[in-house]
């Protein structure tokens, strides 16, 4: 079917602004992805999947300018023992990065594998993204596969002693970065991936994660505070038997953020948790779009999303649990809640269930409202000043999402940042 | 219902529920009435629209209204977003107007109506006599005579056959008649309100309805009047290849109250038939409308052959402060259901409620829910939806709760549960929640494990164990919905009371 004219024009304009890097062994995958982009067209205002988030500035040929924020503090996890892989405005920086050797993992740059004929990542690059295009189209992910300029491939074969940290620094006011990472976690292997920083003025990131039977991947991300940055990210995760995937995202400000999580539970007894806490102030739109597909028996999925919004900020949540025929004994849980600190902010949610198996338990809940007056009164009556009391209640509200992080030390880092945000507001 | 007999039902699902769903799946209204009919030519075009208008002896403005709707409709696309799948509908391969020959001369009173028509309604359990006891309803004789009176407007294919108790209602100032009559007798009211809740261009099916609606009911309750009896409309599709397009307009003026019921059935036919209705309700200050539906159109056979395609737009506009509307629906019929009775809560402190039980079996598909649009301050809405799927059926709840920036201090509570009987069916939930102010509270829950703590505590305190208590509270709700139905639907409701939502999936 031909695309509507406006969509066709926008797609062509965007594609004309990009050049495909030397593709090497990812050639077929990139060309396939480009064909998908042409066939689907880039998202437009009228698309149902973009009902609450205007994609215009994510699709425009040039990235809108975004000032670089000097936060006056190091990025999250700076004190943690980790292996850093640094990208400045989407370009790998060997000087700032650590040595990429670590026991239990092999790390290759996309650029390096592209010139090889045979590499494990070739089998994965663009594969999960392509699978993730049905039943809902994600054209910006396909665009990423086709045009990604950098990224790494991580092969996890053991249990590395420290987390791997992608550090995304933002230095140019007009940077437009497209990164694509692929991660394969082998059987019984386990890794923690951290992501920090604002990345670029406009950031399109795609991560494909394939977890083999009994494998485990923890993912914790803190998206940078630069007020004017824009980001669209996709995480495609496929889980094998008895494997585990746990992801948490903290977003503090940023004019536009769309984080998509596409999770497929393909092996029995697998566990997937995705969580997020976001605090937004002023001109801010944060969109969490999650699509979890249960294809195997006795799997568990959990979605926990909390948003604190004020001064006209908008929070969006689109979550879906799809339980396919035969995926019996599924345990699906989904909660999305917003705390609106004033009357200008809004929360828009679409918590969906689609179930084709009868012996499953899926629950979803969504609430929105102001700070609980009774709780506030309780604290005030015990002598807690108003501001401290609201801060306390706001932190308590966000805690349910932060609690999803297993590693307490890493969770503490996140809590510190949240306290920082609360302290800055007055 | 062989299909359900072979279905492996998972542990925890109440046997009584399975039996009740099976019972519902046996269609009892599949017979037809052999009666001579008069048809308009097949298809839809401006000439057909004019013909329908002419048959109803409508004034010029009405004809123009229809024609402009038709004009718009030709430029619209069929909506595709619902989770229902059916072969393309050929809108030109349908009759848009069919009436019994005997209705050519409109009967002046019920005594003149063709006995065959009266017999049809008699057989459906809706006697068109101004009698007090409803046929076949257990326990009806125990109810005081006053409470048993029900005025009925009976619509047979494209025309209203008759309306009972009109004189008695007139004494109270209540107007209850067919819409075709209202257009002639009360043009000022029709002109003032028609299309103000569901605009002509609202959606594909509503626009088609605006162009070709043939009949339906009209209700006007004057200020301060509590309607002395229940009003009801019974829709029967009888003719083959004929679409029914009815239009209902209910106006509850300041401080009035009315309870309105709607029932529908159709004979068993091999080809699918189209039904696209529009219901508009206007609720003024302090008025209250209770609208109950038992939708039992022919659902098609076990293999999905035949059945009614039910595309309905129902909307209530709570215009005045403290106005209230309550939708209760029991959806058991139709091959395809596409229906979202909605509330626009415009007046301050207005309230909207939606209670729904949708049961799908065999190859049925239902995509149903509600929209609660909060515009006024201190508005409240409550949504309780129960969906049950069996056989190869698909059941979707789709709803919108929207709190506008000005709707301060408003409340919404939504609960929707689904139950699957067997592993070949599907149950889906697609809620949209839009909150644009912070003094309102919105809660959406779809789970049976989450039961109100106070209720639970109450039961536990009285010695029930937790499981028993949960079952009681959850099932209690389902029964609540059924009990909210007026007596007239007791017969249909009786068989549904056994349904419990134990073992719900989400």
From TrEMBL, chain A:
This is Fe-S cluster assembly protein SufD. Pfam families: SUFBD_core, SufBD_N. Residues 173-397 form the SUF system FeS cluster assembly SufBD core domain. It comes from Ruegeria profundi. Transmembrane segments: none annotated. Residues 27-157 form the SUF system FeS cluster assembly SufBD N-terminal domain. Belongs to the iron-sulfur cluster assembly SufBD family. GO terms for biological process: iron-sulfur cluster assembly.
Automatic annotation (TrEMBL), chain B:
It comes from the Bacteria. Residues 235-477 form the SUF system FeS cluster assembly SufBD core domain. Signal peptide: none annotated. InterPro entries: Fe-S_cluster_assembly_SufBD (IPR055346), SUF_FeS_clus_asmbl_SufB (IPR010231), SUF_FeS_clus_asmbl_SufBD_core (IPR000825), SUF_FeS_clus_asmbl_SufBD_sf (IPR037284), SufBD_N (IPR045595). Residues 169-226 form the SUF system FeS cluster assembly SufBD N-terminal domain. Pfam families: SUFBD_core, SufBD_N. One of its GO terms (biological process) is iron-sulfur cluster assembly. Belongs to the iron-sulfur cluster assembly SufBD family. This is Fe-S cluster assembly protein SufB. It comes from Ruegeria profundi.
């Amino acid at each position: 079917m031909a695309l509507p004219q406006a969509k066709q024009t926008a797609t062509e304009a965007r594609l004309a602004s990009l050049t495909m890097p030397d593709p090497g062994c990812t050639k077929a995958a990139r060309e396939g992805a480009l064909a998908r982009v042409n066939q689907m067209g880039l998202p437009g205002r009228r698309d149902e999947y973009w009902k609450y988030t205007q994609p215009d500035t994510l699709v425009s040929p040039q990235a809108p300018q975004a000032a670089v924020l000097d936060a006056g503090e190091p990025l999250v996890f700076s004190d943690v023992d980790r292996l850093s892989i640094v990208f400045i405005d989407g370009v790998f920086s060997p000087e700032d990065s650590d040595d990429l050797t670590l026991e239990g993992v092999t790390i290759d740059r996309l650029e390096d594998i592209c010139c090889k004929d045979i590499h494990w990542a070739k089998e994965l690059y663009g594969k999960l993204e392509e699978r993730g295009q049905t039943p809902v189209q994600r054209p910006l992910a396909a665009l990423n596969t086709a045009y990604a300029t950098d990224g790494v491939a991580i092969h996890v074969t053991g249990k590395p002693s420290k987390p791997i940290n992608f550090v995304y620094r933002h230095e140019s006011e007009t940077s437009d970065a497209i990164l694509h990472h692929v991660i394969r976690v082998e059987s019984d292997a386990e890794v923690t991936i951290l992501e920090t920083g604002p990345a670029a003025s406009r950031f399109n990131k795609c991560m494909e994660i394939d977890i083999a039977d009994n494998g485990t991947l923890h993912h914790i991300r803190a998206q940078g505070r630069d007020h004017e940055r824009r980001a669209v990210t996709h995480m495609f995760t496929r889980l094998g038997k008895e494997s585990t995937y746990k992801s948490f995202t903290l977003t503090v400000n940023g004019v536009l953020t769309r984080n998509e999580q596409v999770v497929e539970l393909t092996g029995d007894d697998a566990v997937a948790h995705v969580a997020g806490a976001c605090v937004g102030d002023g001109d801010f739109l944060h969109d969490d779009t999650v699509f979890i597909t249960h294809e195997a028996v006795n799997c568990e999925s959990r979605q926990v999303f909390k948003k604190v919004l004020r001064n006209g900020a908008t929070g969006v949540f689109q979550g879906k649990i799809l339980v396919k025929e035969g995926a019996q004994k599924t345990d699906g849980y989904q909660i999305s809640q917003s705390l609106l600190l004033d009357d200008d902010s809004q929360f828009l949610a679409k918590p969906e269930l689609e179930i084709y198996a009868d012996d499953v338990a899926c629950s979803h809940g969504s609430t929105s409202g102001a700070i609980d007056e009774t709780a506030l009164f309780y604290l005030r009556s015990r002598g807690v000043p108003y501001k401290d009391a609201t801060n306390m209640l706001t932190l308590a509200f966000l805690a349910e999402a932060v609690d999803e992080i297993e590693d307490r030390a890493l969770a503490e880092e996140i809590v510190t940042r949240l306290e920082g945000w609360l302290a800055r507001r007055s | 219902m062989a299909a359900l007999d072979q279905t492996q039902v998972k542990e925890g699902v109440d046997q009584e529920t399975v039996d009740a769903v099976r019972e519902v799946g046996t269609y009892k209204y599949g017979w037809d009435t052999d009666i001579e009919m008069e048809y308009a030519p097949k298809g839809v075009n401006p000439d057909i629209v004019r013909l329908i208008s002419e048959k109803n002896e409508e004034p010029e403005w009405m004809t123009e209204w229809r024609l402009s709707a038709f004009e718009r409709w030709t430029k619209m696309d069929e909506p595709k977003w619902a989770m229902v799948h059916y072969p393309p509908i050929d809108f030109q391969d349908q009759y848009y107007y069919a009436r019994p020959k005997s209705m050519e001369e409109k009967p002046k009173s019920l005594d003149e109506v063709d006995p065959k028509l009266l017999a049809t309604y008699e057989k459906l359990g809706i006697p068109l006599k101004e009698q007090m006891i409803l046929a076949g309803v257990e326990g009806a004789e125990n109810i005081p005579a006053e409470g048993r009176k029900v005025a009925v407007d009976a619509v047979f294919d494209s025309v209203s056959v008759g309306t009972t108790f009109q004189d008695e209602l007139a004494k109270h100032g209540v107007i209850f008649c067919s819409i075709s009559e209202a257009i002639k007798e009360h043009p000022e009211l029709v002109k003032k309100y028609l299309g103000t809740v569901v605009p002509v261009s609202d959606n594909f099916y509503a626009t088609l309805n605006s162009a070709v609606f043939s009949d339906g009911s009209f209700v006007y309750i004057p200020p301060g009047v509590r309607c002395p009896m229940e009003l009801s409309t019974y829709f029967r599709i009888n003719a083959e290849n004929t679409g029914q397009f009815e239009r209902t307009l209910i106006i509850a003026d300041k401080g009035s109250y009315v309870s309105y019921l709607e029932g529908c059935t159709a004979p068993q036919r091999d080809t699918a038939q189209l039904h696209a209705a529009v219901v508009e309700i206007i609720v003024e200050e302090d008025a209250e409308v209770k609208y109950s539906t038992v939708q039992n159109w022919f659902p098609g056979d076990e293999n999905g052959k035949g059945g009614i395609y039910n595309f309905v737009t129902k909307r209530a506009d709570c215009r005045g402060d403290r106005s209230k509307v309550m939708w209760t629906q029991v959806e058991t019929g139709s091959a395809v259901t596409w229906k979202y009775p909605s509330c626009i809560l415009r007046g301050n402190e207005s309230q909207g409620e939606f209670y729904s039980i949708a049961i799908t079996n065999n190859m049925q598909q239902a995509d149903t829910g509600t929209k609660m649009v909060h515009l006024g301050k201190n508005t409240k809405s409550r949504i309780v939806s129960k969906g049950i799927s069996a056989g190869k059926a698909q059941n979707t709840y789709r709803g919108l709760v929207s709190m506008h920036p000005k709707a301060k201090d408003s409340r919404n509570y939504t609960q929707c549960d689904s139950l699957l009987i067997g592993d070949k069916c599907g149950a889906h939930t697609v809620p949209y929640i839009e909150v644009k102010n912070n003094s309102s509270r919105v809660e959406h829950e779809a789970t049976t494990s989450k039961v109100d703590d106070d209720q639970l505590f109450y039961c536990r305190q009285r010695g029930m164990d937790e499981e028993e208590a949960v079952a009681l509270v959850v099932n209690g709700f389902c029964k609540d919905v059924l009990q909210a139905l007026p007596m007239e639907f007791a017969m249909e409701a009786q068989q549904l009371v056994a349904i419990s939502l134990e073992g719900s999936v989400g």
